[in-house]
What we know:
Elements: E1 9-15, H1 23-34, E2 38-44, H2 50-58, E3 62-67, E4 81-82, H3 84-89, E5 94-98, E6 101-105, H4 108-120, E7 128-132, H5 136-147, E8 152-156, H6 160-173, E9 178-180, H7 185-194, E10 197-200, E11 225-228, H8 237-244, E12 248-250, H9 253-268, H10 274-285
Parallel strand pairs: 1-2, 1-3, 4-6, 7-8, 7-10, 8-9, 10-11, 11-12
Antiparallel strand pairs: 3-5, 5-6
Amino acid sequence: MAVVDVNTKLVGLLGNPLGHSFSPAMHNKAFETLGLNYFYLPIEVTAEDLPAVAAGIAKMNFAGYNITIPHKIRIMDCLDAIDPLALAIGAVNTVIVENGRTTGYNTDGEGFVQSLETETGIAVGGKCYLIIGAGGAARAIAMTLAFKGAEKIFLCNRTEQKAHDLAAEINTKVSPCSEVVAREPARIGAAVRQADVLINTTSVGMHPDEDRIPIDGDLIPNGLIVSDIVYNPARTKLLQVAEAKNGRIVPGLGMLVYQGAEAFRKWTGAEPPVDVMFEVVRALKG
Ligand code: ATR
């Protein structure tokens, strides 16, 4: 257990409930590894109390904090400034406190991109993506890919209207690169053949429904890069099918670790010990 003193820079996690989060253990181990006098603590807070807690934190010795469910949107009303990417995503997961001033960021999409680039060696600009899903995670990933110069972003979602809404937002707020794909095998097949990367952002395939797959495996071409944000199990059925077809796979744990690594960079200015962070999360996941 780290010794907390008057010079300790605090970092928090605001959400409700917080029982299952890996972030405190992951960040505290990373601070300890680099010998930084920082401490990360979970703070359960209700929606009603969020403005008062956020205002109080800005006046204390906090370097910043993470925000999780259900406050990622509501926190935006409590901050002094919001980074343009977080504004386009419409949600904040990381706040920096500097001299009593708060700035909100979203590192979820950045975490996804760092994981994809590290695992595959590709650069995300100029590529074509097929994203399954149109919820919060899809928004963060799609907006970030569009900001980083994606050539094309196909969106396919069970509730097609949500895919249309997200595509329209990407096309007006960032660049006209997004198109909706109807949930029909022929349409999905055509899009996935055009794509450089297939990304599942839905919960399909998550434990205990490990036999489920978000698109028909027969539609996945040989050698495709396939990413799944589901990290339990570590290798979802989608990733197993892609691997059997000589595809390169990007498991979901990377996004979780790299979104934290990017927040760590913002709070400390130091390069995060990513390997140590992976070890902590893998151990906690069991
Ligand atoms: P998150 O913040 O993790 O993205 P979310 O905003 O609730 O969570 O979004 C969940 C996504 O998974 C949505 O795209 C959802 O599809 P709908 O918009 O139709 O609800 C998708 N999803 C969840 N369960 C699904 C299922 N059984 N089959 C297909 N899509 C599913």
